[in-house]
Design a protein that fits this description.
rod-shaped; 1 helix; single chain; mainly alpha; 18 residues
């Protein structure tokens, strides 16, 4: 449960989710 991981996932979701 790290904030860094959460932030990385959010960025990936924007690019990977596209």
């Amino acid at each position: 449960m790290q904030l860094k991981d959460s932030k990385k996932i959010v960025l990936c979701v924007e690019d990977c989710g596209s």
